[in-house]
Amino acid sequence: MKDVLIMTQAYELLYNIEVILRQTINEKMRTGYGIAWEHRIKEKHSFANCYYHELIPYFAKYSPLQKIFTEKERKQLYQLTPIRNKICHMKKLDPNDYTFLKECHLLVKRTCQYYHEPI
Fold this sequence. Notes:
Elements (H helix, E strand, L loop, with lengths): L1 H32 L3 H4 L11 H4 L2 H4 L9 H9 L1 H8 L6 H21 L4
Helix pairs in contact: 1-7
């Protein structure tokens, strides 16, 4: 039962990371490029269909997002990809994976919260 609880919590953390990253990208790109920002940039496929590992480069590539994460932080978020795949394919996480996931969640939550515009 402990494994189920850990994997459920891991999925929740991962879900929150991806949602926060997507919201931040959409918000900042809208501010920087306008409501039709997706049409102004040339990506392989639509933003809505991006996988996790395709979101991270946005923070290096586009000026409205470049100050949000340092290069070191972006590398840390990239390193989360294999752990994300374990979670999504229901492979057990080892304790180090879970700890790293929690660190990434805190990083994303803390950093993106600072850059969100008040509603």
